[in-house]
Amino acid sequence: MTDCKLMIAGLGGQGVVFLSRLISQAALLAGDDFITYESHGMAMRGGSVTSQVKIGNYNSPLIGHDSADILLVLAAGEYERNRHFVRPGGTCLVNSKQALADLPPECLLKATTIAVDNNLPKAVNLVFSGWAAQHQAFPYSFELMQEAVKTMAVSPAIETANLKALEIGRQQT
Amino acid sequence: MQQVMLGNEAMARGLLEKGCSFTYAYPGTPSSEILPAFIQQGREHGIAIHAHWSVNEKIALESAFTAAMTGMRSAAVMKQVGLNVAADAFLSSAYLGVTGGLVVISADDPGPNSSQTEQDSRMFAMLAKVPVFDPATPQEASVFAGRALDLSAKLGLPVMLRPTATLCHARQNISLKAISQEQSRPEFIRQPQRWAATPKHRFKLHQQLNRKLLELAADPRFDFATEGATKQTPPTPYGIIASGCAWALTSDLLNALPNDESRQFTLYKVDLPYPLHKNAGRTLLERHEKLLVIEESMPVIEYQMGDQQKICGRLDGTIPDAGALNPEILFTALKHFSGAKNLLTKNDDAAAPPGKRPSLCPGCPHRSSFYALKKALPKGIYAGDIGCYTLGINLNALDSCLCMGASISQAGSFYQTFARRGDSIPPIAAIIGDSTFFHSGIPALVNARWEGSRFVLFLLDNSTTAMTGNQPTPAAGLRADGSQGPALKLETLLQGCGIEKIEVVDPYRQSELTDKLKEAWQYTQAPDGGIAAVIARRGCLMIPAERKLLPTLQVTIADDECTGCGYCIKAFECPALMVKAEDPENRVMIDQVTCVGCGQCVTICPHEAIKII
Ligand code: SF4
Ligand code: SF4
After folding, report:
1. Which of B141, B170, B458, B514 has a C-alpha 20 to 30 A away from that of A17?
2. Considering CB atoms only, which of A12, A21, A46 is closest to B171?
């Protein structure tokens, strides 16, 4: 049974909620219990949003300071605001064009640039997760994420586009 | 079978599993997804159900109550401030009771995140003398929705299910039961002395209600003192009583503590915070040295506990009396409560920089409307209302926001105040969206017209309830289940309210809109003038069909012409307008991924640096 507290941060409209749903779908496929929380309402209009995913034996979806195992950041500006949720020794993966002082380069990806260059500007979240799934701290394998994308796709066209974005992300390591 | 469900979807599921066939709601974060999930799951299972977006919460509750008068099982769904609107029906319905089953789901928003107050619906239930369940997880919420229906049917009383935002928008793998295929028929038994009770009968009904509540408070199924690790001898020094999401948070926190620390506490879970079980509290007061009550967002259980000497919680300040609970607050409370004997110390004072504030979407027609309003009535008082357009505050084009529909009453009263006591009357505008106008703007408008108030009624008609996820309004005619009803025209309604000057303008035509707003203001000052309505009509871009109507222009900012004055960002705040990174002159650029090509910013730049290519 996996035990992982994962947090996703970004801006409204970036697909933070979709990403947390994708990871929960992977958890379901893996047969793990989980509970997640998403921001809704006013914040979705371009404001800061976070999603919290707790995989394992939990009742509340809320993650406290110093306790997330992994933090995924889709907008570099949101890193500062959320890094204190990560436990000592935890992992931060950030979508950023610029270097960030306290993070090694292998924890950064220019996901937006890559997505735009590949003509998938709306799939930054998937490119990012295809890459993130390669990291050791990520709770599920790349293959399971692929499965999750397939089970969640509402049309074959979306499935193809999303799998492509995921694959482009994988190639970034 | 296991399925991933949002708390809101799980509640809809629970209703269907127990034979609920009528659901009425008004959208409001965090409750908005319940009704669509009810429709979708009902449809998937081929159940004959009826679900409707009522025009407001009072109507939703009156409708659901009436279905439950005929023996049906029904639900009324709203957010906590919606219950304020439905209060009249809610309090009266407790006296009359039901013959079927009625669940009132009122979703709270501690924080608040998307509301004007962080009131506790359980407190409202206590005021109305309605039993209330407080579920802790999506799984439990689906079970409690069903329990609430069963209890309602058994007692003949409405029963409340009170989730909080954390639960509504939590997603969890949950176990499902079969959906009820029960198809009973409505039957109305005439009982005028009950259904139309006069004050004399109301007194008797009140006594009956009290008896039912006393019985319920003695029901062993709700004795929370038997739960938890009670067999420990001797008992732990500290007892914690919690309900709902606050219980979930506490149990996770205690589980994360090392054994020797968590061993000091016994956690008890309350499923039914009102009426609180009559003996459980006393039992625990005898069992433990001290008790801590953890609940959101007001001390409902705590007030009912009696002996305040041994009890910590919101009343003695152990738990803050405002704001949502989170692991840090609970941790501090736990330390304080247990005298911090040997609890883990933890870095709980990390201060996060503030987040990015929400703003209207790129291309949002409201942004153009606000810009035109500021140009037309620069010294105006802008009485605002509730919806996406409350974000007009970012554009400095909103001066008030009291509650749903208040823009019109406030504009009317601003007029009366200045007309009767002021030296002059400033330009006054009521800014209200279409859905909010239907919700509670209409009676306010009838009142203002009757009172003889004068102001510009600026109706932002984006043909949807945008803030809560684009639910249709009566103007579209489309109903919650996708069927087409009659489309009610705003113009006709305005005429019916006695408004004689009405203009409809596309907000993307900014100069025309500015002119019409100026004209409207002049009309309010004319000797035979009154209220002038300007309808800014353009669909919300979240609706795919409306998005197709976008001009999709290629818009850029000429680097050599931009002076970096920052006016466009300050006055227009389109999320696609960004100050260039590391530009010494702070020039602005358009982020092409975010820009939708509406072209609305082009006329804003005083230096004509923004161009269509
Ligand atoms: S685009 Fe125009 S308004 Fe915006 S900063 Fe440049 S000069 Fe100022
Ligand atoms: S054209 Fe201008 S106002 Fe419209 S979305 Fe693009 S930057 Fe924003």
Report:
1. B141
2. A21
Which CATH number covers residue A119?
Answer: 3.40.920.10
CATH of range B365-547; options 3.10.20.340, 3.40.50.970, 3.60.15.10, 3.30.1060.10: 3.40.50.970
Is A101 among the domain residues?
A: no
| Chain B residues within 8 A of A116 when measuring between CB atoms | 593
Closest listed residue to residue B49, CA positions, set B15, B81, B96: B15
For B242, phi then psi, to 5°, come to -145, 160
pLDDT in tens, A29-78: 999 999 999 876 555 567 788 999 999 999 999 999 999 999 999 999 89
Contact A25/B170, CB-based, under 8 Å? no
Whether the CB-CB separation of A170 and A112 falls below 8 Å is answered with no
Report CA(B397)–ligand 2 centroid distance (Å). Answer: 19
Segments forming the whole domain that contains residue A132: 4-96+108-170
| pTM exceeds cut of 0.90 | yes
**Average pLDDT in chain B:** 93
Kindly give the number of the ligand 2 atom that is closest to the alpha carbon of B553. Answer: 1
| Cβ neighbour number for residue B608 with a 10 Å cutoff | 10
pLDDT of residue B348: 45
Interface probe, candidates A5, A19, A21, A40, chain B, greatest B C-beta count within 10 A:
A40
Bridge partners (DSSP) of residue B557 are B610
Residue B438 is given by DSSP the state I
ipTM, two decimals, is 0.90
CA B382 from chain center: how many Å? 23
Could you identify the residue written with the tokens 């394998």? A141
Instruction: Determine if ligand 1 sits within 6 Å of the CB of residue B610.
Output: yes
Q: Backbone phi, then psi, for B445, in 5-degree steps?
A: -70, -40
Whether A65 contacts A83, CB under 8 Å? no
The span from the CA of B581 to the CA of B583, in Å, is 6
Residue A34: DSSP 8-state: E
Distances (CA, A) of B103 to A161, B358, B454, B603: 43, 34, 42, 52
How far CA B383 is from CA of B76, B410, B453, B457, B538, in Å, comes to 30, 6, 14, 10, 21
Q: Per residue in B372-392, pLDDT tens?
A: 999 999 999 999 999 888 889
Distance of CA B483 to the CA centre of its chain: 25
Calpha distance B329→B422 (Å, rounded): 48
Q: Which of A77, A16, A44 is nearest to B360 (CA)?
A: A44
Residue B593 CA: which ligand is closest? 2
Residue A17 inside a domain? The answer is yes
